[in-house]
Write a structure and sequence with these properties.
alpha/beta, 2 helices, elongated
Length: about 80
């Protein structure tokens, strides 16, 4: 089985979870590819102020899209399962 995990992590919490999930999958003999989504304009963490946090929460709630860097060619191969985290 071939699995692709695409993820974004602002504060490294998602990154840690994804890598633990990946380790478990690889332990079961799964061929795993993990790729982190890279925004064109990187976010900063910690965010800094309460108003900045509220703005980020509002943008998230409204599902405002952020442009990302192009995905590497390995992401365009065929996979049995794709996980978006």
């Amino acid at each position: 089985m071939k699995v692709l995990i695409l993820y974004y992590s602002l504060s490294a919490q998602t990154s840690g979870l994804v890598h633990r999930l990946g380790a478990g999958l690889e332990g079961q003999g799964v061929h795993l590819v993990c790729e982190r989504l890279q925004p064109l304009v990187p976010g900063k963490f910690p965010i800094g102020t309460v108003p900045a946090t509220l703005v980020m929460m509002l943008l998230t709630f409204l599902r405002v899209r952020m442009p990302i860097q192009p995905l590497p060619p390995v992401c365009w191969e065929d996979y049995d399962l794709i996980v978006l985290a």
